[in-house]
Amino acid sequence: MLKTAKVILVLLALSVINYMPLSAQHANEGSSHGEESHGETSHGDESFNAGEFVIEHVSDAHDWHIASFGNTHISIPLPVIVYSKKPELHDGKSFHVFMSSKFQHGHADYKGFRLSHSEENKGKIVEVDTHGNEVAKPVDISITKTVAGVIVSVIILLWLVFSVAGSAKKNKGKAPSGLQNLVEPVILFIRDEVAKPAIGDKKYEKFMPFLLTLFFFILINNFMGLIPIPPFGANVTGNIAVTMVLALFTFFITTINGNKHYWKEIYNPDVPIWLKFPLFPLMQVVEFSGMITKPIVLMVRLFANMLAGHMIVTVFVSLIFIFASLFGAGVGLAASPISIAFSVFILMLDVLVSFIQAYVFTLLSALYFGMATADHH
Amino acid sequence: MGLVTPNPGTIFWMVIIFGIVLFILRKFAWKPILNALKDREESIANALNSAELARKEVEGLKADNEKIIAEARREKDVILKEAKEIKEKIIAEARDKANSEAQKSIEMARQQIQSEKTAAINEIKKQVAELSVMIAEKVIKKELSNKGEQEKMVEGLIDDIKMN
């Protein structure tokens, strides 16, 4: 218990260190770039732009920020992989791979690429011509902070699951040991409380690997997102592209496994004929949109929940600096215990939300699979 | 708008990473884990079943034992009862036999007495008859010593005959 408490304290301290210099960086940026880039949004010398601070914390980036001291930024550079349709701007080559440190945190252009400061493409890579005008956007498949976060989580996921698989093989016919004891109940929960009731005793086995991967992927990414120290803390499940891919996997598996009954419900539902074949095939449109809405709902639910969690934590932390910039450093310092208490509370809530969202995503996927493979009502 | 617009690069990597992870885990991790879980569940179920069977067997043995004991007890009771009956029968038989023997001897004694008595009576009768004849002889001899007396007697005899 004591050990756990110590670990939590250290994590909290580190998280504050992680957040604090960032605000200093923003304050500095606010003063130095005030005239050039966001003259209107700047509130003067000591201003702190909470909105920008929060958004920057939850959005994707081309480098992984660790800390800033004054104007010195410490961040992990991430690979930039871009394909340009205008090779003449980039030394005659179309395909470029380089580290994001070449941009010097957005202060320098590199081979005709630039981290944009403009309102529209902020933080994105754009192509610039010799006069420094943004002329095009390359095809960007860089390893961004989100992708790097996914890779870190996936390494943990693989390690976790393979160690469990190893001990499962080792302890065949024996009592489980170690990590197996932690993971197996979760697997059993997914199997007995999610897959079996939703899909049915006969067909559930086919979908188990996907449901388990889905659940553990979301859960681990949710948790990693809560740890505020790199290489964790990337807002992975609060990124709409990530949740979109997860939802698409569910959608395609549902569609591929849809049986005759499932498609009949969509194209020839059991309703009065005038609802199906008037001038306009009303029911078919409704059913088809239902098919499309399901993955969209999955995508938005996970995305919005995790994003909101991250945002609220960041907002509570930034309250310190809002108070400090409005009423002076002393007030900010006085407000910090309350802010931290609220942040901790929200983090605890986020742990719960992490479980719930992973569970809900998995359960709904299982329900959709169940609908796709159901024989009769 | 940046937050709600999916980034194509992230989608690209996410599809690749999640696809690979799904494939690897499906093939090399989930199958063995799920199989191990199933095996263990089955073996636990089997163990529980066999334990239940063993328990039932023991219970059966116990019931058998009790049945055997009860049977033995009953047999003992039966044997004791039989012995008692036999004893009583023997005693009764002995008594009967003794009784009948006694009866028989008494009967025999009685018969003997009877026959002795009869013999004695017959003897007495014979002697009485002889004595009577002797007496009658003497009386007749004395009576018929005179004439008158002889006639009187003949007349009396004739009267008797007449009356018949």
Structure commentary:
The complex is a heterodimer of chains A (377) and B (164). With 377 residues, chain A is mainly α. Chain A folds into two domains: 64 residues, no CATH class; 228 residues, no CATH class. Chain A contains ten helices and eight strands. In chain A, helix 2 crosses helix 9 and helix 4 packs across helix 10. Chain A starts with a helix and ends with a helix. Chain B is rod-shaped, with a radius of gyration of 64 Å. Chain B is built from two helices and no strands. Chain B has one domain. At the A-B interface, strand 8, helix 3, helix 4, helix 5 and helix 6 of A face helix 1 of B.
The overall average pLDDT of chain B, rounded, is 89
Distance between the termini of chain A: 51 Å
Structural class of chain B: mainly alpha
Largest sheet of chain A: 3 strands, antiparallel
The chain-level mean pLDDT of chain A equals 81
Please describe the biggest sheet of chain B, giving its number of strands, its sense, and whether it closes into a barrel.
none
Shape of chain B: rod-shaped
